[in-house]
Amino acid sequence: xxxxxxxxxxxxxxxxxxxxxxxxxxxxxxxxxxxxxxxxxxxxxxxxxxxxxxxxxxxxxxxxxxxxxxxxxxxxxxxxxxxxxxxxxxxxxxxxxxxxxxxxxxxxxxxxxx
Amino acid sequence: xxxxxxxxxxxxxxxxxxxxxxxxxxxxxxxxxxxxxxxxxxxxxxxxxxxxxxxxxxxxxxxxxxxxxxxxxxxxxxxxxxxxxxxxxxxxxxxxxxxxxxxxxxxxxxxxxx
Lengths: 114, 114
What we know:
The complex is a heterodimer of chains A (114) and B (114). In chain A, 0% of the residues lie in helices and 55% in strands. By secondary structure, chain A is mostly beta strands. Chain A is globular, with a radius of gyration of 14 Å. Chain B is mainly beta and 114 residues long. Helix content of chain B is 0%, strand content 50%. In chain B, 40% of the residues are buried. Chains A and B meet through strand 4, strand 5, strand 9 and strand 10 of A and strand 4, strand 5, strand 9 and strand 10 of B.
């Protein structure tokens, strides 16, 4: 079946460096993509989203890139801080508006080394 | 912090029992979605409630059922608990009806089935 997956389950980055978290998706009908951050003991927290008619979107210290040709999504975090340590999930929504069913990937654990 | 609250935070049940989990949505949100998150996995969509009716369901058996009340709060009921039902159950609210709305997650209920 269709699924969202991640290339790397864990990632360690030195504080202050940039990090890149990758995600592959297989549903070509997906219209909307979201990155979530989940800290221990908490629910997923929205970071940034992007629609399929865009290939790049920037937020505060974060950038999401979408490559529809190879069905690849990435999250770039600039100047990482200890508070960035968490599990990051990419999620997709197929193009059936009115239903916010998200398909999540397994997640990447990002550890920021002081 | 989101305005989504879930109760209880932790729960221990035995196989075959029934459980009810509760969720209060964020103010102004009329849609509630429930997700199951097994350890080390991404959340899996269970179902969504919009205007007190089920509005989409994931691949979960009928023993998973829900309700939404006029104040938009919601319950998730699981009958005949199985060991594999042990997971973090997340509730998310959104304004709904528009599609691709941002979901705001609660911190979840950690259910352990012994």
